[in-house]
What we know:
By secondary structure, this protein is an alpha/beta fold. Helices cover about 30% and strands about 20% of the residues. The chain is built from 15 helices and 16 strands. The protein has helices at about 10-20, 95-105, 160-175, 190-210, 235-240, 245-255, 270-285, 300, 330-340, 345-350, 365-370, 380-390, 405-415, 455-460, 460-470; strands at about 35-40, 55-60, 65-75, 85-90, 105-110, 120-125, 135, 145-150, 155, 185-190, 215-225, 370-375, 390-400, 420-430, 430-440, 445-450. The strands form 3 sheets. Strands 1, 2, 3, 4, 7, 8, 10, 11, 13, 14, 15 and 16 form a 12-stranded mixed sheet that branches. The chain has a two-stranded antiparallel ribbon with strand order 5-6. Strands 9-12 form a two-stranded parallel ribbon. α3 crosses α4 and α4 packs parallel to α12. The chain is globular and about 60 Å long.
Amino acid sequence: MPKSNYSLISSSMFLHLLLLALPLVIQISPLQVQAAATVKFLPGFDGPLPFHLETGYVGVGKEEKHQLFYYFIKSESDPGNDPLILWLTGGPGCSSFNGVVYEIGPLYYKQKKYNGSLPTLGATPNSWTKVANIIFLEQPVNTGFSYATTPEAMHVIDVDACTHVYQFLLKWLVDHPEFSSNNFYLGGDSYSGIVVPRVVQLISDGIEAGNKPLVNLKGYLLGNPLTFPEEENFVIPFLVGMAIIPIELYQSMMQNCKGEYRKEFAPTNAQCTQDLNIVDELSNNINDQHVLDPLCGSETELKSPFPSKFRGSRRSIQENAISPSCYGKLVDRHELSNYWANDPRVQKALHVRKGTIDHWARCKQNGIKKYYTFTSMDSISYHRNHSAKGYRSLIYSGDHDMGVPFQSTEAWIKSLNYSIVDNWRQWIVNGQVAGYTRSYANKMTYATVKGAGHVAPEYKREECFNMFKRWISHNPL
C-alpha cells in the first residue's frame, strides 16, 4: 500500500494549490488559433491514407512562445458522435508519434529493421481511431516537432506543462467547434500518469468556472501509469513473482529493509545494504520495459518512466551494442521512426515548419532534463478528486513491466478505498485470456494485459484495442 504521509505529499498539495490558483476564467479568441493542414499522403505509405489526418501547431503559454505540434485523426466510424480523446505520450519528452505508429494509432511499420531506404508504413485494423477521434499531442515543448520561439521559453516546469495542455485543448476546440459536444477523455501512459490526472483537474475546474469553450469531460484512461514516489518499492515483489530474485532474499529484505527498497531512503543497516546489492546484481541486464525481452542497448533506459531525480541507481546497462537477439525487436522498430521522421519529404508532408528543430527524436528524455523541472511525482489525490466527481477511468497494466509494476498500480487503486462492483476475473479476446480485470464503485476499471510490457499496446495491440473499444462503449471488459 502507498504510505499516507510519504515524503512528497507536501509538494503534491503545493502543486494542487498552484493549479487551483490559476486564472479561473479563460476566454479563447478564435484569432489566437492557427489553421491546421490535412495530410492525404505520407512518404512510405502506398496510396492515399484511408483515414483523415490533420497536423498543426497551437501556440500556448506567455505570448504563445510554446508551439505545440499535434496529429489529429478522425474516427473511422462516426466522427460526429464518437468520443474525442487527447492522448499524451510519456517521457517526458517522448513524441506523440509513438502513439500514432506503435501504440494506439492507425499506422505501423511494415519492416522490422532499417535497410537504408525510407521505412514503409501500413494501416492496422486495431487502431483506437476505429471508434474514437484522437488528438496526439507533442508535449511538453521540445518534444517531437514542438518547439519554443525563444531560448527562455524552452525551460518549463511541470505545473506550466499541465497548463499548456489545457490551453491547447481550449484553443483546439475553438478551431474545431464540431467536436465541442463529443464526449471527451484524456489519456496517456507511463509518465503521463503524473500529467493526465492534473490536467483533468484543470479541465474540471475550468468547467465549474465556466471557461469557454466548455469541455464535455467524461473521464480519463492511463496505461502503466507512474503515480507516486514509492512506486519502485513494488519492483521487489514483482521480481520475486518473476523468479528473478529468490523468496529467501525477499523475506530477508522485508525484515531488514522494512518495506523501503530505494537505496536513497532504505535503512542503513548492513544486512539491508547487502540485500539491495544482491538485488542489483540479480536484476542487472534485465529489460525494464518487458522482463522477457532481451535488453537492447540504451533504448530501454531511455524509456524508463522514472526521472533520474526520483530514482535510485539499482539498474544499469552495461553495453550499448545491439546483440543478434535484439534484431527485429522493438528497439529496431523504434529506430525506424527516427529515420522516417527526419526525412525532409516526411516533414514537408506533415507540414512541419522549417528550421524549428535540429533533429527529431522519438524520445528526448535525456535531452529534455535540463529544460524540464519536476516539482512533484504524486497524483493519487487527483484520482481521489476525480472519483468524487463521478468521472470514469480505465487503468491498465502490462503485467511484465518492471518499471511500473502492476503491484504498485493495484496498491494505489486499493488506497482509494472504493468498494468492488465486479470482482477479479478474466477478460477474453478471440477465445483466449487477454488479462484480468476488476471494477470499482467510483467508476474505475482496472485491467492487466497478459504478456504485455510497459506500453501495453506495443506488445498486445489487438487485445488493447478490444479492451478500449469495450470500455469506451460502456460495455464490460
